[in-house]
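Input record (one chain):
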Amino acid sequence: MTNPTKSQPAQRVIIFDTTLRDGEQSPSCSMNLEEKLRVAKTLEEMGIDVIEGGFPIASNGDFEAVREIAKTIKNATVCGLARAGRKDIDRAWEALRHGARVRIHTFISTSPLHMKHKLQMEPAAVHQAVVDSVTYARNLCEDVEWSPEDGSRTEHDFLCRCVESAIKAGARTINIPDTVGYAVPDEFGALIAMLRNRVPNIDKAVISVHCHNDLGLAVANSLAAIRAGARQVECTINGIGERAGNAALEEIVMALRTRHDVLSFTTGVKTDHIMRVSRLVSGITGFQVQPNKAIVGANAFAHESGIHQDGVLKNAATYEIMTPESIGLTKSSLVMGKHSGRHAFRQKLRELGYELGDNAVEDAFRRFKDLADRKKEVFDEDIVALVDDAGMGVNDHIKFVSLQVVAGSKGPQLADLELEIDGVVRDVQARGNGPVDATFNAIKKACPHTARLQLYQVHAVTAGTDAQAEVTVRLEENGKTVNGYGADADTLVASARAYVKALNKLLTKRERTAPPESVASGAVSA
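The corresponding structure, as predicted from the sequence alone:
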């Protein structure tokens, strides 16, 4: 295939975000309904074309999430995943049916390895399942996508046969997954070109790709597929996903934008929303972005080398191939401090990409004033952390009230904690092996539980000894794992907030989570 050039018209690439489905399959990366809705709304504002909300038959929680996202989202297509069985497809349709624009995404494994060991089915039976499942889904939903799981390791003749039959049965989108991240770019691009050349009715469907990052090639493989004719890319914010993750949405979008000279394609993504969405997903999941991560890492626009600094000062293009502003890192004209009022604070929120309700603004403003009294300079990153923290847990059973800790080298460390539990304030004291241990022991005393602490992670929002701390706490109880996030200028207060939020998530899971219906214990990689 001839590579696109400047003389050719730009072609539109559909961006399919699976952060809420495949991204959530990362170990300990589950989100509750409120969090999924927040991410979905932000993705819609960003201009994402398709949002895969979840796997409805996996649990009542996933079903509710897909149903509420489908009801809420108006501009993007909302997608639900289903295996090649009527029970799965019915459950997906039940979750999606009241949405404005919806899609059923059904799949079955097609590689010899998967058919033999996972499905224990012969190729003929798998092919018939493709026809039956797509036909059944198409009778329910106008927009159907079909995926051959482990497509990159599927025999070409069988893959072509299945793709042709899926399109004939009504699939509008054919997604080719590199499920285990095995392919390399030339090979994967050639696979897409082969399908375009050999499948007679391929022009009746959009070719999509879904690449995993086990060899660090997910983005490269996705771009190779686009050049070979794919017009939809499935990806996740920050590249999250099971094992080594998925193709990173921000890297694909910015590669297409930055190298438009050799990749003559466009997307509908508003790139100046990228940092906001990245921070939101990182805060909710507790997965911190590595500093040297492309596009959204803390060092992505940092220059330490003297030669580099000199060049950037003279002309930013010497060492920056894109501007910080293009991904939402803007220099603000509003300097915030303890004398700033509500009007200026609201304007700052708008500059940072936030449109909040009155109650949320009031809570964030109160926290901002408290922070400004303690901190010399309040940076944009501080306000982002406050807003993300304030936006979670409005209807929680347990609410943080106050914390006083006695600490030091001589010990013992003592925490005096106040929590509001279902409207009743409890005041408890507890000792511990260090101030954090004492704080968590106090929470356990106020709210007895059997959850185990799996992760305690502290991250400084900005530089300096007065920097706010962002804390992530991961708890596990009876196989259910949740993350809690907290931010505060006091690390111990942030720790208590994070622990309390994790506990609230566990309570929500107890209320909403039911045993999966016929879902294998392993994660799904369609």
